[in-house]
Amino acid sequence: MSDIAIKAENLSKAYQLGDFGTGTLSNDINRWWSLVRGKEDPFLKIGEANDRAIKGTTDVVWSLKDLNFEIKQGDAVGIIGRNGAGKSTLLKLLSRVTAPTTGMIKAKGRIASLLEVGTGFHPDLTGRENIFLNGAILGMRKYEIARKFDEIVDFSGVERYIDTPVKRYSSGMYVRLAFAIAAYLESEILIVDEVLAVGDAEFQRKCLGKMSEVSKGEGRTVLFVSHNLNSVLTLCAKGIYLKNGALELSANIDEVVRAYAKERDTEYSRDVKIISEGKQAWLSNFKITDHAGSEHLEMESPVLIEVEVESTAQFDNIQIGIGINDYNEVRLLTLFSKFYNKAFTLHQGSNKLSCKMDRLNLKPGLYKVEIFIGSDHLNLDYYSSGLQFEIFPSLNTNHLLPDSSQGSMFVNQNWF
Amino acid sequence: MDTNSTNQEWDLEIKPHDTVFNLHLKDVWNYRDLLWLLVRRDFVSFYKQTILGPLWFFIQPIFTTIVFTFVFGKLANIQTGSAPQPLFYMAGTIAWNYFADCLNKTSTVFRDNAGIFGKVYFPRLIMPLSIVVSNLVKFGVQFLLFFILFGYYLIRYHFFGAKEPVIPNWYILLFPVIMLAMAWLGLGIGLIITALTTKYRDLAFVVTFGMQLFMYATPVIYPLSSVLNKYHGIIAYNPMSGLIETFRYAFTGSGTFFAGPFLYSLAASILFFLVGLVVFNRVEKNFVDTI
């Protein structure tokens, strides 16, 4: 089918920054006055890209700017981008929670959006009553819900509690029930935000399974936003990559993920912020690459770490420690030259120390690095200012990956 | 592909602005089940974990009537016309509460539901409509109470020769119109207020105490006839006056039917309702950004 399910034309959305209050009333009057005279909104003229890192000159910011894309019927599309790239704004526009500032979206078929699970759940109502209420909020007719009621209860696995008020549910049960309702929506287009970050592993798998069933099996259009490149890769065939509110790339998911990964690579470019004050030696550069020198590390890549240390004098018997933490600051791995009774001598000036490994056995994700330079008695530098690197999923593996509850490591396994 | 997409029929177009009078009523109709479920939710959650349950709907008007009868009737000795005082006050109270609840609840509909509205689309008008229907049902329950009291005084007057006359008349046929007009008025004003308070909340503070004061500018605790000459301005321009007075007159026969104020009230209700709809409709698309 080559029919277009969603088409965005010059889609833009502007937001006003800062607090409403002083200043906004006069702006509002000003704005109203120009509208009355048939002029353009004076506060929207100056278009600024939405880069939260840069201080702007106006307090109007374009969260999305001139977006054009088409999504075909039956496609599963992953929307990726950094925080603040406009993903959520796009979802909000698509799900009609808020209106675009300019431009238009055209859609064919019913749109159901899942920006959150359990929207409108009333704590005092029972599971049964909430299924009907929530289903209706999501746009289902009562008879549709009644027809699917048993399936929903079955999928959620909370049958025993179905006549208990949901405020007595465990948070897991609550989410299960909420997702189950959404999973049985009958809409041609389904929009899903990162709601899968909830529930236990078994349920997450079930949700992903259900979603791919929806897109692949039933031929419905699915839009999926996630920071988890893994689930985007497994679920989606097409991808949209947003950057600072503009469309960077709309293509096959592999291509889009690769472009995004490359961008992230430069963003987390292992840049060391040199902090030399009061130190005799300090970390001046950190590089993590594969053996061929590429900075795009996939799961199975062999790894080479190069540490550069700037020293003001000569030091003997120096150890290098490299701690790798996950994003919750849990230490996963420590590389330490002392483990191998290897000591370095730092000379005055720049020193390069390297470590080579077959692989890190870390599953795809973002990792933080801490680096220690010193000896048993001497702490020359301890660098923990947010060095990061990322492991990307290999695009051509034949195995699944552990989810968040199954640990951070992955080793190749040979089952027989 | 281009020709394909230009020829295509779209079910939905999401645009920055619609025409002012596109109220998406078809959409509202499609979501009618939600309306009923919301009303149901309001009721079920109201008496969950209470011992008296739905009886609470009766308690408020009973006690208000008792207090009003005592304070305004006995202590302040305000003329209530020929009707028995409890009946007079209860008629005023339940009708006024119905209107006031409609207005109060709809005037905060954006703020109260910002969470839901920010996450999922359904025709926003469903929410205020469900409030009005909920209140209508609540009024229905309270009207039952009024009806019992009404029956009691009616029988007492006709069969036991009590002094206070209760003479229902044909204006009772206007009852549905009155209910509708009060709903329109409450909904209309409420919608305007909620639309105006998405960005600046000042007005919301006025509503809470304003409604209390507004009650005294409405013939709830006194008959319209007693003030019409003296304070003609305030009371007669208040669109609630004609409605409450007609409601009470139709059932008790106390007072007179003022055709002028009634028609004026009706017209004002419709006007407020339409303006409210348009304003609400204009604001609903973007209020999430500012609330």
Automatic annotation (TrEMBL), chain A:
Keyword ATP-binding: yes
Pfam families linked to this entry: ABC_tran (PF00005), Wzt_C (PF14524)
Gene Ontology cellular component terms for the protein in this record: membrane
Source organism superkingdom: Bacteria
InterPro entries for this protein: AAA+_ATPase, ABC_transporter-like_ATP-bd, ABC_transpr_TagH-like, Bact_Polysacc_Export_ATP-bd, P-loop_NTPase, Wzt_C
Gene Ontology molecular function: ABC-type transporter activity; ATP binding; ATP hydrolysis activity
Occurrences of domain ABC transporter (ranges): 44-269
Keywords assigned: ATP-binding, Nucleotide-binding, Transport
Family note: Belongs to the ABC transporter superfamily.
PANTHER family for this protein: TEICHOIC ACIDS EXPORT ATP-BINDING PROTEIN TAGH
Protein name (database record): ATP-binding cassette domain-containing protein
Automatic annotation (TrEMBL), chain B:
Cellular component, GO, one term: ATP-binding cassette (ABC) transporter complex
Listed InterPro entries: ABC2_TM, ABC2_TM_bact-type, ABC_2_transport
Domain of life: Bacteria
UniProtKB keywords: Cell inner membrane, Cell membrane, Membrane, Transmembrane, Transmembrane helix, Transport
Family as reported in the entry's similarity comment: Belongs to the ABC-2 integral membrane protein family.
PANTHER family: INNER MEMBRANE TRANSPORT PERMEASE, TRANSPORT PERMEASE PROTEIN
Listed name of the protein: Transport permease protein
Organism: Mucilaginibacter glaciei
